[in-house]
């Protein structure tokens, strides 16, 4: 199943998964009889995993919902900042696993055939959450409760489209680092295309010009090995399972650059529940880069930070999948989603510390070969799900947060879409310096920067203001 990604660059890790508490939510997760197809063509149901907690709920309190994403392990509400809010706001809590991930498999072990994957649509995903919310509100006598949906990364995209497309169910939303731009193909000028690789490169230069220069030399050497047909030599430096062919050049180089991005996404001092890395990966990578015996060895040392668990279990790492299985991303359904409603991508442009790609990124051949699907265009997606700049600007009660370390902010919403206004319902943009990818959605931990702790307080106060109306 992991090989399904061979030709597709997966350089965009969105949400990972918590490694340490897999399957141990308290109260325990349960299963809901969910329709496989909400359009009414079939009455077939599947067991949809969720976790609910009404221990703090009092009549009139809100329902705080975590929308699941592409991870194999569902997030528990008690790991998230909304757990604190529930206590203060008399709220109920609900975590919704994303269909086709974790234990929410509509066709059991046969869920990932092309035939069965066809129910993995954005409409079904949204309807799943709506059905669960409606049912749970009835169950706890909360039919009048206002619902706030929270998501980070891909699920931050989902919380945004849920609020935009289903305002009758979702009163407000937190969308942390949700992709809203960079969907393919690029039809507009380059200004629309804030680039995660450029952001990652800039961060390296800003943090350590010395290390950045070594990385740049390493990528030059790596590119020249592939370009001169000496890919075999790469195995002397990197423990790759498969050697990239010349035609895989761009995918290979982009994926290694992507690992630098993922390490920034997960750059926190402690074990972030959303990732399986610890100990400030950026600082570790910079130190190892400077200490390495050569620029190529420095690249190997950095990729090894993310790929440690894959190396330990398989003895080599699959550059095709960027070792993201080690942090819990389930590739096949995520790949399918990337070919459907998350058709975003970008290239490494000249001038960064990475190797520029030669051909523009295009997922179409991969999506056709793998799933017999032609990805929708950006315009088609926006026309159907209403997440253009204009739609986003006019949708009230959404907080869009982005973190300073996180290169995903490059293709999330743009700060200039949100003028300063005293209107407390206006959509808001929040930049959190010194924070990693979606870190604001998880509970405060020792070592969180004052900016991050304050960002969570601001989010809570904004939500309280919405609810008080
Ligand atoms: C599905 O696969 C898992 C893991 O291989 C296995 O443990 C389980 O028994 C399978 N379930 C069915 C219904 O075949
Ligand atoms: C449900 O809540 C309402 C107030 O919100 C209350 O009047 C009613 O008695 C409650 N019903 C149950 C079954 O708890
Ligand atoms: C690559 O880095 C890892 C981790 O530090 C190390 O074990 C390995 O020897 C390095 N080189 C190669 C060729 O694998
Ligand atoms: C990186 O190196 C600096 C200087 O030697 C050291 O103070 C710091 O603790 C190191 N950080 C990590 C994460 O290894
Ligand atoms: C997380 O990393 C540790 C250490 O590298 C590894 O033992 C563990 O299996 C990883 N967890 C997952 C979910 O891959």
Separation of the first and last Cα atoms: 49 Å
Rough shape? globular
CATH topology of the largest domain: Rossmann fold
CATH architecture of the largest domain: 3-Layer(aba) Sandwich
Structure described in brief:
Helix content is 36%, strand content 10%.
Could you describe the 3D structure shown?
- The chain is an alpha/beta fold and 469 residues long.
- The protein has 2 domains: 10-183 and 384-467, Alpha/Beta hydrolase fold, catalytic domain (Rossmann fold); 191-371, Serine carboxypeptidase S28, SKS domain (Four Helix Bundle (Hemerythrin (Met), subunit A), Up-down Bundle), CATH 1.20.120.
- The protein is built from 14 helices and 8 strands.
- It has helices at 82-89, 114-117, 122-139, 154-165, 196-207, 209-227, 249-265, 281-291, 295-314, 331-338, 364-371, 378-385, 389-394, 450-467; strands spanning 30-35, 45-53, 63-67, 92-96, 147-152, 172-176, 398-403, 428-432.
- Helix 1 links the parallel strand 3 and strand 4 (92-96).
- Residues 237, 239, 300-301, 304 line the site of one 2-acetamido-2-deoxy-beta-D-glucopyranose.
- The site of one 2-acetamido-2-deoxy-beta-D-glucopyranose has 6 residues, from helix 9.
- Belongs to the peptidase S28 family.
- GO terms for molecular function: dipeptidyl-peptidase activity; serine-type exopeptidase activity.
- Pfam families: Peptidase_S28.
How does the SSE layout of this entry go?
Layout: E1 30-35, E2 45-53, E3 63-67, H1 82-89, E4 92-96, H2 114-117, H3 122-139, E5 147-152, H4 154-165, E6 172-176, H5 196-207, H6 209-227, H7 249-265, H8 281-291, H9 295-314, H10 331-338, H11 364-371, H12 378-385, H13 389-394, E7 398-403, E8 428-432, H14 450-467
Parallel strand pairs: 3-4, 3-5, 5-6, 6-7, 7-8
Antiparallel strand pairs: 1-2, 2-4
Helix pairs in contact: 5-6, 5-7, 6-8, 6-9, 7-9, 8-9
């Amino acid at each position: 199943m992991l090989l399904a990604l061979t030709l597709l660059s997966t350089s965009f890790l969105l949400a990972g998964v918590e490694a340490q508490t897999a399957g141990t939510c308290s109260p325990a997760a349960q299963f809901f009889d969910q329709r496989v197809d909400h359009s009414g063509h079939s009455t077939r149901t599947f067991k949809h995993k969720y976790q609910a907690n009404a221990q703090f709920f009092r009549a009139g309190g809100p329902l705080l919902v975590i929308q699941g994403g592409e991870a194999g392990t569902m997030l528990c509400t008690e790991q998230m900042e909304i757990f604190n809010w529930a206590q203060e706001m008399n709220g109920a809590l609900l975590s919704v696993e994303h269909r086709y991930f974790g234990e929410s498999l509509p066709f059991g072990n046969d869920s990932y055939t092309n035939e069965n994957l066809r129910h993995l649509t954005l409409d079904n995903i949204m309807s799943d959450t709506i059905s669960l919310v409606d049912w749970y509100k009835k169950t706890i006598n909360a039919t009048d409760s206002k619902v706030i949906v929270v998501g980070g990364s891909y699920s931050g995209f989902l919380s945004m489209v849920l609020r935009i497309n289903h305002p009758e169910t979702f009163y407000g939303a937190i969308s942390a680092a949700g992709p809203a731009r960079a969907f393919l193909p690029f039809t507009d000028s380059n200004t629309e295309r804030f680039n995660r690789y450029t952001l990652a490169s800039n961060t390296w230069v800003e943090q350590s010009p010395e290390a950045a220069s070594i990385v740049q030399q390493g990528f030059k050497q790596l590119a020249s090995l592939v370009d001169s047909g000496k890919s075999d030599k790469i195995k002397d430096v990197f423990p790759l399972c498969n050697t990239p062919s010349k035609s895989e050049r761009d995918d290979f180089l982009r994926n290694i650059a992507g690992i630098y991005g993922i390490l920034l996404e997960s750059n926190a001092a402690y074990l972030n529940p959303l990732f399986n890395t610890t100990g400030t990966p950026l600082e570790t990578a910079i130190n190892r880069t400077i200490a390495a015996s050569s620029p190529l060895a420095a690249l190997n040392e950095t990729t090894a930070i993310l790929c440690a668990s894959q190396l330990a279990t398989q003895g080599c790492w699959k550059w095709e999948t960027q070792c993201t299985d080690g942090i819990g991303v389930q590739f096949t359904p995520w790949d399918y989603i990337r070919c459907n409603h998350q058709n975003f991508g970008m290239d490494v442009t000249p001038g960064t510390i990475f190797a520029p790609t030669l051909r523009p990124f295009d997922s179409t051949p991969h999506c056709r070969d793998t799933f017999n699907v032609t990805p929708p265009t950006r315009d088609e997606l926006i026309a159907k799900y209403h997440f253009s700049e204009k739609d986003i600007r006019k949708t009230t009660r959404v907080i869009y947060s982005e973190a300073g370390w996180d290169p995903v902010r490059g293709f999330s919403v743009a700060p200039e879409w949100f003028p300063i206004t005293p209107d407390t319902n206006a959509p808001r943009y929040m930049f959190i310096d010194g924070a990693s990818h979606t870190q604001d959605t998880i509970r405060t931990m020792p070592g969180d920067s004052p900016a991050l702790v304050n960002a969570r307080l601001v989010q809570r106060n904004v939500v309280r203001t919405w609810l008080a109306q």
